[in-house]
Model the fold of this input.
Amino acid sequence: MNISFQDRLHYQFDNTMETLISSGDKLIVIAADDDKIHLSGVPTPPVEHAAIRKATVRPNVPERTLILGWNARATAIISELDNYVGTGSIVKIVADEHEHDEHDSSAGFILPGAGQPPYQNLSIDFQPGNITDRRTLDALTSEQYDHIIVLSEATNSATDAQQIDARTLITLLHLRDIADKQGQHFSIVSEMLDIRNRELAQVIRADDFVVSDKLISLMLSQISENKELARVFQDLFDPEGAEIYFKPVCDYVALGKPVNFYTVLEAARQRGEVAIGYRLHDQAHAAEHAYGVKLNPHKSQPVTFDKEDRIILLAES
Done:
């Protein structure tokens, strides 16, 4: 997926839906490549207004997040998480004691109660433990968590990276087995150090893997092609700007009957949001179907949504 500038450029996300396009403006376009961008030729989008549902106000409820492992990026992750979760949320950190040192500034770890930075919406709890130990994970997951984040240790060599990824894979295998046997439903996001191990890890059916170096390389390559994209990425990754959200389809269009994406776009527009795709739950673990994610789909092609499916949106909240 690439982002290109074609006709109109807005550095700040515009949710007024009333902006007039003028000569010299540019559009931010999502496409596989520049040569894949073309006009549909449809003079009037065939929106199915009867299928659009009224906006549902969902309260921002407290969430419970479990972080397994620790590295220098963890503090930034928690700080950013505080901008999105509801008041009263909890983050529990479990890491081997050798992974952190309250006097080691490179690790960035501050023990709870020892100068812990204040958070507006969440509280922090720390527990030392071996995150590859099944008994430790069984005890942890006896409590209900909404999200689990598995972090990699810091490394200085390729050999260390393979060993650390192997440790992460063991943790993920245990988590998936626990979820299957106990019927628990929590999202799992893991950090991997080597992109080749992501393919190996697909059998674990984690919700996503983040390969930090790969992500940075992809972003830099796009910015090198078009420096204007730097401001777009800055807005997307800033909690004060627009972000990418996955929201329930049922809040936008009717379920159980075919609707086209023009209708989804109009339902999002009425809320001051921009729909850029959707995710089909029944394909969430199918690599050959991009894990159910359809970005910039054919607007006229009908799709039948289920209650677990999600609309992918650019929105302020």
Summary: Residues 4-13, 101-108, 111-115 have pLDDT under 50 and may be disordered. The chain is about 25% helix and 20% strand. The chain has three domains: 1-39+213-238, 64-206, 242-315. Residues 166 and 303 are 39 Å apart (CA to CA).
